[in-house]
Amino acid sequence: MLERLKALVRKRIPNPRDDHDRHLLADVATHGCHVIKVPRVDSAPPFAYSIGLYHNFTHPEILVVGLELDLMHRLINDMRDHIRAGTVFPAGSRSSDILTDLECEFRGVARSHYVDLFGYARWFYRGNDFPAIQCVWPDRRGHFPGQPEFDPTFCEIEPTYERST
Length: 165
Description:
Layout: H1 2-11, H2 19-31, E1 34-38, E2 47-51, H3 53-57, E3 61-65, H4 69-84, E4 94-99, E5 102-108, H5 114-117, H6 119-124, E6 132-136, H7 153-157
Parallel strand pairs: 3-6
Antiparallel strand pairs: 1-2, 2-3, 4-5, 5-6
């Protein structure tokens, strides 16, 4: 019973306030998600994230950091297509289906980062009650963030917002 109630609450969408909101809601309904692209600001890297994957597919929203905005948009849409086809990218998993000739890893995003990262998603979900994962990729030698051999210059390009354990 509680799970059914949570599903009903999750499906409740906010009322649009303007044309931006209507566009977001139309994308979520038509395409399965909307992608927000945030350009570089000062020393903070650019990032992009999905809105609607949890609503439509009960899959965590996806965050990508540090690439060109349109590339991050395409990557999120590609992941959405995989999710729509039944693929699940749980936190802690890796996939070689997203980036050509490169494995990526999915890490949970702590809710303490939601205010800084997921503003419009927080409006859509009416708060922080949605899961999110970050898609990270290895350095040039194939090491992921957090591994001792990882190239630290990648940390500035691709910060990870992983849950603390």
